[in-house]
Amino acid sequence: MRFFKSNAEAEVRWKVDDVVAALRRRYDSVDKASHEDMDGALQWYSVRFNNLKFAIGFMQTGPGSGEILEIGLLAVFQGFQPGPDFVAEVNRLLHISILSEEGNGQMFLLFSIGMKGNYDDKLFNGILSSWERDLMLAIQKLNGADKSFSALFPMAQSEIAQRLALNTNPRTDENPDIDLVGSFLGAKATAKSLCGSCDGRGKRGFLARECEVCDGSGFVQAR
Predict the structure, then answer these.
(1) Is the pLDDT assigned to residue 144 strictly greater than 70?
(2) For residue range 168-222, what is the model confidence (pLDDT) as tens digits?
(3) Which residue, of 68, 96, 198, 200, has the fewest CB within 10 Å?
(4) Which domains does the chain have, with CATH numbers?
(5) What b/e string do you get for 43-54 counting C-beta neighbours within 10 Å, with b at 16 or more?
(6) d(CA 175, CA 69)
(7) What is the pLDDT of residues 70-82, one digit of tens each?
(8) CA–CA gap between residue 13 and residue 149 (Å, rounded)
(9) Cα torsion for 199, 200, 202, 204, to the nearest 10°?
(10) What is the dihedral of CA 127, 128, 132, 135, to 10 degrees?
């Protein structure tokens, strides 16, 4: 399946070598696809994230150019039997990717983004962090509704941590209308509200472009 689009006129400076080096700093296993699995300007790598595998593809300006037009991420899940509304439910929660139900009992988790300008390590690692979040969320949903998401974070099982992090609802029967934003975050926070354009994500669309309304912060001035 292809989810790349070629745009040879774009000015591209991100290099395959820079991106692969960043992947190898972050993950234990990053393997280049064999020569037989190459597809012209499209170059694939297999990445292992703990016991999970995903593929990252680079659409280059030309075969072997090493200059990236677009980066794609793909994880394939097979052999699961989710409910009829599973894909729609998960897609409402994903941050940068989309889950697609394919034939043969497979589901594809997909993300792609066009690259321009100089390589930005902070930006790329931010993309990977968001991708890992989406992977964990999809797996948690596959795990079953009765399984706690906190099980993915061992530190969250600590009773000490739970006590230190406890936030109790300040609303009472006598004061049911206490403003939670002002109560927890202070008076300055009440001047802000979630951006309605991106629902507070700071990003829009499957390509996770920065929201122009809130400049990527996820918040706007309250009216």
Answers:
(1) yes
(2) 888 888 888 887 777 777 755 455 666 777 777 777 665 566 787 877 777 666 6
(3) 200
(4) 16-149 (3.30.1460), 178-223 (no CATH)
(5) bbbebebeeeeb
(6) 56
(7) 999 999 999 888 8
(8) 39
(9) -10
(10) 70
Q: For 37-63, what is the mean pLDDT?
A: 89
Residue with tokens 């989309």: 98
48 CB-near residues (< 8 Å, 6+ apart): 27, 28, 29, 30
One-letter amino acid at 64 equals: G
Using alpha carbons, select from 97, 102, 84, 79 the residue that is nearest to residue 138.
Answer: 97
Q: Which of 52, 49, 56, 14 is nearest to 32 (CA)?
A: 56
The pTM of this model reads 0.67
Which one, of 75, 86, 82, 83, lies nearest residue 134 by Cα? 75
Reference 40, options 73, 14, 8; nearest CA is 8
